[in-house]
Design brief:
Keywords: ATP-binding, Carbohydrate metabolism, Kinase, Nucleotide-binding, Rhamnose metabolism, Transferase, Xylose metabolism. It holds the Pfam family FGGY_C. Belongs to the FGGY kinase family. It comes from Streptomyces hebeiensis. The chain is an alpha+beta fold. It folds into two domains: 234 residues, ATPase, nucleotide binding domain (Nucleotidyltransferase, domain 5), CATH 3.30.420.40; 217 residues, Nucleotidyltransferase, domain 5. It is 40% helix and 20% strand. It contains 19 helices and 21 strands. The strands form seven sheets. The protein has a seven-stranded mixed beta sheet with strand order 17-18-16-15-19-20-21, with helices on both faces. It is globular. The termini are far apart.
Length: 500
């Protein structure tokens, strides 16, 4: 690592329920230092208009500007760089003048219902997986584009920018398509790390809509004069492409030592799997619904998307609306006192994707499984967390079997690292130690890639993770309890999946 003074790097991290601007202070001096602080947090509230669920992208962009302004005020100087990471698959369409053609559509909108079947009639699922390595999710970018093929908006579009690239474009005026997020579109070949042109051609997807591909660490322009004026910053301020899919940044910030680890990046979704050197494109992998997304430094994120804490978030909204809500910390304490594994559901069930009345849907799923139906917020919360732990176990076990790589530790990063009950249950379910933290893994990964691009630190992922470990005090959970009870619950859910 180079000998540098600590530099502040701004990480724009947009999640499905909130956005954050964090500042990471990085130095490569001696053994290196790394410190992260939250500067500004703002809500992400999707809006339904005329029957379509949209992201309020201009509100999010305003939050980004407010955060950059606050970052300058907090540090007394302009950041040494800016990086942007967000959720995957969604995009904005621009016209020939570079103007946005309407608010981006939310991936949970119903417009892709039935689209996968229409795509499969042209490109069979096994051929699609062999070409792109992406798991089936009904809202993948490919399905969004084919569903919109007859729309006037797509016909008028001259540029498509994924959400982090759209924010970067507004900040810099320069357009690019960052590869880790592009790999979630189902239009990238994970072997070549380039467009899967035969797939796009067969389905009538115009790849010229996409800006040129760029990788983590590539320059993405400088803040425009009007952005500098709006934020009160003094330029030049470079913007760097990071792992712009937030999971790519989060996995880069897994504080692992060595290669024998699994990860669970938790938040609205749980993304559980392994970091590999090459994709796994077997038919068995496709049937197991594993995805091969691209990561930092040429890695592959071999993982399964699991419904995640969305289940609990939607329950909390429902209970707040009907007056039975209570503080989350109290609810988790009550859930910890509920006997475990009395009620479980398949957290991968597509029935849970859409918003609305999640407690009822969980009760219905419990009836289908044939187990006990949970009553009240504490029992439902325990059902959700037991079910997520079982889904984490299944993904970790399947990833090892399908890839041929064994692990001895599970790292839980992201917001769920704060959830002690979920971490403990994941350790018990997997029968492996769980190391929890950092909670702000995406922001840490974002900052580390920026710092390396700026020359503040040097090295590969191993070096970046070593620097990160020195800045953290993660919590470790050892497995305990009755493994046979988890085995029985897993068998029950396997039977329900087979019957579905």
């Amino acid at each position: 690592m180079s000998l540098t003074e600590p530099l502040p790097f701004a990480a724009v991290d947009l999640g499905a329920s909130s956005g954050r601007v964090m500042v990471g202070h990085v130095s490569g001096r001696g053994s290196g230092t790394l410190r992260l602080e939250e500067i500004h947090r703002f809500p992400n509230r999707p809006v339904r208009a005329a029957g379509t669920l949209h992201w309020d992208i201009l509100s999010l962009y305003a939050g980004v500007l407010d955060g950059l302004r606050a970052a300058g005020a907090a540090t007394g100087r302009a950041p040494a760089g800016v990086g942007i990471d967000t959720w995957a698959v969604d995009f904005g369409l621009l016209d020939a003048d570079g103007s946005l053609l309407g608010n981006p559509v939310h991936y949970r909108d119903a417009r892709t219902d039935g689209e996968a079947a229409r795509v499969s009639a042209v490109v069979p699922p096994d051929d699609l997986y062999a070409a792109t390595g992406l798991q089936y999710l009904p809202f993948n970018t490919l399905y969004q584009l084919t569903a919109a093929r007859e729309s006037a908006t797509l016909a008028a579009a001259r540029r498509l920018l994924l959400i982090p690239d759209l924010i970067a474009y507004w900040l810099t005026g320069e357009a690019g398509t960052e590869i880790t997020n592009a790999s979630t579109t189902q239009l990238i070949d994970p072997r070549t790390r380039d467009w899967a042109t035969p797939v796009a051609n067969a389905l009538g997807v115009d790849l010229t809509l996409f800006a040129p591909l760029r990788g983590p660490g590539a320059p993405a322009g400088q803040l425009l004069p009007d952005v500098l004026a709006e934020t009160g910053l003094t330029g030049p301020v470079p913007v760097t492409a990071v792992g712009s899919h937030d999971t790519a940044s989060a996995v880069a910030a897994v504080p692992a030592s060595g290669e024998r680890f699994a990860y669970v990046a938790t938040g609205t979704w749980s993304l559980a799997g392994l970091e590999l050197d090459a994709p796994v494109l077997t038919e068995e992998s496709r049937l197991a619904n594993f995805t091969n997304e691209l990561g930092v430094d040429g890695t592959v994120r071999y993982l399964r998307n699991i419904m995640g804490l969305w289940l609990l978030q939607e329950c909390l909204r429902a209970w707040e609306a009907d007056g039975t809500g209570r503080p989350l910390d109290r609810l988790l304490r009550e859930a910890a006192d509920v006997p475990g594994l009395r009620a479980v559901v398949d957290a991968d069930d597509p029935a849970f994707i859409a918003p609305g009345d999640m407690p009822r849907r969980i009760a219905d799923a419990c009836r289908r499984v044939g187990g006990r139906v949970p009553r009240g917020p504490a029992e439902i919360t325990r059902c959700v967390l037991d079910s997520l732990a079982l889904a984490h176990r299944r993904a970790v076990e399947d990833a090892q079997r399908l890839s041929g790589r064994t692990v001895d530790t599970v790292h839980v990063v992201g917001g769920g690292a704060h959830n002690e009950l979920l971490c403990r249950l994941t350790a018990d379910a997997c029968g492996l130690p769980v190391v929890a933290g950092p909670a702000e893994a995406a922001a840490f990964g974002n900052v580390l890639v920026q710092a390396r691009a700026a020359g503040a630190v040097r090295g590969d992922l191993t070096d970046l993770r070593a620097l990160l470990r020195g800045a953290l005090e993660p919590r470790r959970y050892e497995p305990s309890g009755d493994r046979k009870a988890w085995d029985r619950a897993a068998e029950l859910l396997a039977g329900e999946r087979a019957a579905r």
